[in-house]
Amino acid sequence: MPVHESEAIILQSYPLGEADRLISFLSRSMGRVRGVAAGARRTKSRFGSTLERLSYVRIWFFERPQRDLVRINQCELIESFLDAFRDYASGVALGIFSEVTEAVLPDHEASDANFRLLLLAAKWVKKTGKPELAMAYFTLWTVKLGGWLPSLEACARCGKALTANQPAYFSRSASALMCGNCRVPGQRVISVAASAAARDMLTKRLDCLDEQTIPPRGARELSDVMLDVIEHQIDRKLQSRELLEKPA
Ligand SMILES: [Zn+2]
User: Fold this and answer.
1) Distance (Å) from CA 221 to ligand 1 centroid
2) How far is the CA of 162 from the centre of ligand 1 (A)?
3) Nearest-angstrom CA–CA distance, 95 and 195
4) What is the β-pairing status of strands 20-27 and 3-16?
5) What's the CA gap between 240 and 175, in Å, rounded?
6) Helix or strand or coil: residue 125?
7) Separation of CA 169 and ligand 1 centre (Å)
8) Which residues are paired to 188 by β-bridges?
9) Mind listing the pLDDT tens digit for each residue in 1-56?
10) How far is the CA of 239 from the centre of ligand 1 (A)?
11) Which residues pair with 102 in a beta bridge?
């Protein structure tokens, strides 16, 4: 049985039996993987705090014949996000990042773009303590990488151009944007600021965005729409989303 070694980000961790943990992680070399960390619940576990959610680690694991779950052999911490979870809003955002990544990526398919996106967004939240922008960026790019981004350029119903100076409307059921003429009651509004932010985010790295031009409210509108698109794709509600507070 060959040992795999990879950089990884811990996505979820569940107790398993008396002493073990079931871990879902995003490895750089093999994509999303689930495995067992034997003895990880013991107080003097060799895993220490390396298996906390979003820990950025180097991990060693074995694949086992005829088994879905790998065996996690060893784990070394590269960077911890534990402190960032202490702030409520940051913790909710980080929880959404891990749940979304876990939900949208297939098993054992490496995706360097998703790996880098998750790490970039988590580091931003940890560094700034301001999760709104990172959440909008993370959800927008997750949707884009998944191939589910609705057209930001034209109304899905009449085909008319969606201009940068007018709001657009998002239909959850169609997972598409519509113009002011085609809108129906109950659709989410995407303000001019939010669509400008989306266009900006698709062409720039998170750390190159000008925060001043993207109000938290516009970022939140964008996240709400992108989380709707993600829930539409995975065909269920995200649990961590329920913890998001209403925008001020
Ligand atoms: Zn229209």
Assistant:
1) 20
2) 8
3) 25
4) antiparallel
5) 21
6) helix
7) 10
8) 170
9) 689 999 999 999 999 999 999 999 999 999 999 999 999 998 888 898 899 999 99
10) 33
11) none
